Amino acid sequence: MDLDPWSLLKASLEGDDSGTSILSIDKSAKKFEIIIKNQAFLSLESGFELEGFLCKKIENSDFSTELIYKTNGTILETSFGKFQFPEGEKNKDYTKFCIKDITTKQRQEEEIAWRLRFELGVASSIQILIQQHSIREGLPQALYQLLYFTEMDSVFFLKYESIDNKDRLQIWVNERKTTKYPLLPQEWQNEDWYDLGLGRWIHKLKRGKTIYLTQSKAMPREKWFFEQTKAETLLLIPVLFENKFLGILGFLKYKKNSPIQQENLLIYQTVSRWMGLFVQRDIDLAELNRYKSTLESLILERTVDLAKTKEELERAYRAKTEFLAHMSHELRTPLNSIIGFSKLIQLPESDKTGKEYLNYIYTGGTRLLNMINEILNLMKIESGQIKIQLTTFRPEDLCRQTLDLVQPQANAKGMEIRFRPPLQSKSLTSDSGKIQQILLNLISNAIKYANHPYVELDCEWIDDSLEISVRDFGPGISEEDQIRIFHTFTRLNDDGNIEGTGLGLSISQGLAIRLGGTIELTSQLGQGSNFKLKLPEIIK
Ligand code: ADP
């Protein structure tokens, strides 16, 4: 059989998807001729200017592989290959020239690269969220990162809160890829989305549904949203944590006819699930911090309370010790004189001075008795053993009886006691004996310590509480001594000329407290003092 080599060569080039041809190239003239081409080559070369393309390549002696993007979207790969043809004309080169349709392969590669980029974006934005302490700081950065790697043009996060049964959406993130796209207007966060005609969105989102809308598919009352934002596509994804609606993750896209692929939608939803986790963590942390600070202030308060109690206990302990020390001293002094003068009275010359000694013994004994009575009184008050005997009486009557008792003391000093009864005559239920004891002490102090023609005793009702003031115009008491004088055995300027034990005011204060009242002192040095006994109406 006689085989035609030309047909053989042609046949060898067939049966392949890629287009194959053989060129002869005139090196000096920089011209070429396609000697032979297969069927596939014929269909692939249509639709682009092959002549011009090859001319340029040969002229530049550039035999590298090159991609050609045809207007119909096809991507072609062109390559030159070796073809040995020693019998050919001497000034010519022979080479294979192939065209391959790589559209699918190229698209797949691009898709993989895009997806990798997308996933990288998601991973890095989630990483930002993990690393940041506060979601409010991390979120804008994380979502911007996401935006950068995806097809979306702007992103926002609206934090949801229900205040007084009203939906409130606060803009936490408002980012865009470039400044050519508008941001969400800030005033939207104060608007009621139902009033804006977007209530359907909120309703759906709260039930966990995603909203994916394009301008053409929006309802008439929603259209304004697209007109104002100039966006083509809107994607709203609810941010949830265990079915609790926490906010909305929104994306806008401005490119026309560019739908969001289903797989990408799933990725955006995954991001929103992650966000739910972080937003909830932020809420929990804030709550925890609130608890922590209340706990801290509570501990601080308790510590202060404890320190105060400790201080009070220490003070009470010191006072008791002081009291005991004083008491033994105060008791020993009159006892010494009693014993001393009793001894003297036994001496022969006692006749002359006996009477005088007897007087000393009498005074010493009385002082001792007074002191022991007062100490016992104080002990009773302090140990809570004191009994209250309630009667109902008019305070002005009690004041008058008390005045009768101190009148001799005032007379002895040539002093007058000016009494002002209450304007309103009302009865009081309390322990009249205890009140009298307090008044006796305050009035006799006023007489004892003041050298002024008169002291004042005022009795008045202020609403339902009774106030009895004992006022003198004597030496007064300095501010620093005003608290001290209520402590046991405290006597100011004690030069022994004025009789006293230093127990009267402690007893009076103790009694007033036991009656549910207080004694308040206002005094100024050189001006006089005002001791005010305040009592509620009824003491049970
Ligand atoms: P006493 O009068 O027995 O010394 P008190 O407890 O009644 O004891 O009084 C304590 C001290 O307070 C007195 O020693 C005196 O120095 C001072 N004091 C009390 N009342 C007055 C007053 N009206 N004016 C100035 N000092 C007073």
From TrEMBL:
EC number: 2.7.13.3
InterPro entries membership: GAF-like_dom_sf, HATPase_C_sf, HATPase_dom, His_kinase_dom, HisK_dim/P_dom, HisK_dim/P_sf, Sensor_HK_Regulatory, Sig_transdc_His_kin-like_C
CDD domains in the cross-refs: HisKA
Catalyses which reaction(s): ATP + protein L-histidine = ADP + protein N-phospho-L-histidine
MF-aspect GO terms: phosphorelay sensor kinase activity
Keywords (A to Z) from UniProt: Kinase, Phosphoprotein, Transferase, Two-component regulatory system
Enzyme class per UniProt: transferase
Alphabetical list of PROSITE patterns matching this protein: HIS_KIN (PS50109)
The protein's name: histidine kinase
Domain Histidine kinase positions: 326-539
